[in-house]
Inverse folding.
C-alpha cells in the first residue's frame, strides 16, 4: 500500500457513453454524435478499513462509478488506482490476483443470483474462477461463509427462490467474500429490501467489516442508511461530486445547497416539529446538461457566475465543496 495509506484513488475519472442515432440516420438527417456524460470528472480516495458513501438522486452516476471501480466499465478519461496499481490491470491476465482483492455486491438480490444454481454452486463459483482450493476445501469454505453471513450450512443445497430477500442478499455477500477480498463496492445493497430487513443486513456488513478489515464504497440514495454506515460521504449531482466531508460534518453542517436540500427532505422523527422541505425541481437531462454549475436551475442562490462557469472543488474547512456561492459567501446559511 502507498505511504500515504491511500488504498483506492480516483483522479478526475469520467465515463461517457455514445448514444448517437444509427449511422444512416446521422448521414441522412445530418444529426450529430451524442455523448452521455454519466460521470464527468470525479475524484476521491479511500483509506484501508473505511466506508465512503456515495449519495445522490437516481441517474446522477453513482452506479457508473461503482462499475468503473470493479472494471466493468472502462473510464473514458482519468485514473483509478487500487493499492497503487492501475485498475486497467483487471482486464489483463496479470490482473487475476488484483481481481480477487475487490468485489461487488449488487443492488437486486432477486436478479443477481442465478435461479438455476444451488447456493453452494453460487458461492463456490469465485473459488473456481480464481483456481483456489480443491472440491473438499471449497465445500468447507462454502459452509464457513454461510455461517459467517448468518445462514446455515444446510442451506447449501437450496435454490435462491427458496429464500427471502434479506437471505438472498446474505448469499450475495457470502459470494462476494468467497475469494477473501479487501475492498467491496456495495451498489445500493439494501434498497430492494424491506426496512426491517435493511437494518439486519447493514449490521451484518458492519460486523464483517470489523472482523475482516474490509474497505467499503457504499452507494445509496437513502441518507438514513448512509448515516448508519459511513465514515465519509460524497454527494453526487449530474455526474460530479459537489460535496465531500466526514459523515458528522456533512449531516451537521452541510455546505452545498443541494446537500442541504437532500437533508431537509428527510422526515423528522425526533418530534422537534422541523418542517420537511421536499427536493425542488428535477434533475436536468444528462444529454443536455445546463451550462455552468449543473445545479443552478434548482438552486435558490444561483447568480450569473453560476450560470456561466463550472465551480471548482475547493476546501471549506474540513469539507470539499464545488459551489460559487460557498466560495464567494452568498450561499452560506
Amino acid at each position: 500500500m502507498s505511504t500515504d495509506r491511500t488504498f483506492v484513488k480516483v483522479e478526475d475519472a469520467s465515463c461517457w457513453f455514445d448514444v448517437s442515432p444509427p449511422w444512416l440516420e446521422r448521414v441522412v438527417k445530418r444529426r450529430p454524435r451524442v455523448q452521455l456524460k454519466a460521470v464527468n470528472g470525479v475524484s476521491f480516495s479511500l483509506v484501508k478499513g473505511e466506508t465512503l458513501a456515495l449519495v445522490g438522486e437516481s441517474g446522477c452516476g453513482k452506479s457508473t462509478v461503482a462499475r468503473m471501480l470493479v472494471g466493468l466499465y472502462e473510464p473514458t478519461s482519468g485514473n483509478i488506482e487500487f493499492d497503487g496499481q492501475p485498475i486497467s490491470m483487471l482486464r489483463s491476465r496479470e490482473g487475476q490476483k488484483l481481481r480477487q482483492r475487490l468485489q461487488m455486491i449488487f443492488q437486486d438480490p432477486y436478479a443477481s443470483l442465478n435461479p438455476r444454481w444451488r447456493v453452494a454452486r453460487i458461492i463456490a463459483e469465485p473459488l473456481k474462477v480464481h483456481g483456489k482450493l480443491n472440491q473438499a476445501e471449497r465445500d468447507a469454505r462454502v459452509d464457513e461463509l454461510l455461517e459467517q453471513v448468518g445462514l446455515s450450512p444446510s442451506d447449501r443445497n437450496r435454490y435462491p427462490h427458496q429464500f427471502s430477500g434479506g437471505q438472498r442478499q446474505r448469499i450475495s455477500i457470502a459470494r462476494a467474500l468467497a475469494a477473501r477480498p479487501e475492498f467491496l463496492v456495495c451498489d445500493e445493497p439494501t434498497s430492494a429490501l424491506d426496512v426491517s430487513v435493511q437494518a439486519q443486513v447493514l449490521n451484518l456488513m458492519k460486523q464483517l467489516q470489523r472482523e475482516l478489515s474490509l474497505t467499503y464504497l457504499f452507494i445509496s440514495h437513502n441518507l438514513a442508511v448512509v448515516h448508519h454506515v459511513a465514515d465519509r460521504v460524497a454527494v453526487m449531482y449530474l455526474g460530479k461530486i459537489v460535496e465531500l466531508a466526514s459523515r458528522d460534518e456533512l449531516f451537521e453542517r452541510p455546505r452545498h445547497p443541494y446537500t442541504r436540500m437532500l437533508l431537509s427532505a428527510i422526515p423528522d422523527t425526533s418530534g422537534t416539529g422541523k418542517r420537511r422541505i421536499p427536493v425542488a425541481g428535477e434533475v436536468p437531462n444528462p444529454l443536455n446538461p445546463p451550462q455552468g454549475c449543473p445545479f443552478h436551475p434548482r438552486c435558490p442562490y444561483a447568480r450569473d457566475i453560476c450560470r456561466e462557469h463550472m465551480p471548482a472543488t475547493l476546501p471549506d474547512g474540513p469539507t470539499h465543496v464545488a459551489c460559487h456561492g460557498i466560495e464567494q459567501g452568498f450561499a452560506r446559511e
Notes: The chain is about 30% helix and 20% strand. Residues 52 and 206 are 13 Å apart (CA to CA).
